[in-house]
Amino acid sequence: MPTFIVLMNYTDQGIKGIKEAPGRIAEWEKAIAAGGGKKIGGYTVMGQYDRVVIVETPSDEVAMSALLQVGRAGNVRTTTLKAFTDEQFAEMVKKLA
Hints:
Distance between the termini: 27 Å
CATH superfamily: Lrp/AsnC effector binding domain/regulation of amino acid metabolism (RAM) domain
Shape: elongated
Strand order of the largest sheet: 2-3-1-4
Structural class: alpha+beta
Largest sheet: 4 strands, antiparallel
Number of strands: 4
């Protein structure tokens, strides 16, 4: 399954309602699972981002739907990175001319 690293920053709305964040996190996990994906890890971090979440989904489209769902709630802004394993990278390099 494709893997995505999601970098999140709380919006003004999100930080005002920070006490509800654990529930929002659980709801987003359910949405990912409903699409056939799973959360690999979720972290609250210090620095440029507020949260980092790693998810696997069956397709890019499922990931995009989950990202749109979390974004439209207005509590976080996301930057998403599609990740490749070292094994996938090695296969890509083999194909170079």
